[in-house]
Amino acid sequence: MLKKYLKFNLIFALIFILQLVAEYYELSALKYITKPLIVISLLIMFAISTKLKGRFHKRLFTGLVFGLIGDVLLMLVWKNEAFLPTD
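RESULT FIELD:
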């Protein structure tokens, strides 16, 4: 598995390490780039490897898209507290 998708694994590891660095040093600009990139890279890899054949693959892909939307929305909460009510 690691050799079959070596390029993807290296790119994903780089994105993951950048995300860890952004969290550790509190680099908000880098966080806003790397957080969605993690899910986007998974979406691309999943679509390429499965070619989205069958209902299960399409549903899993849709779940990843909604996960990406949720991540982006949660990143925007600090701009407007009323965006997602906490009560």
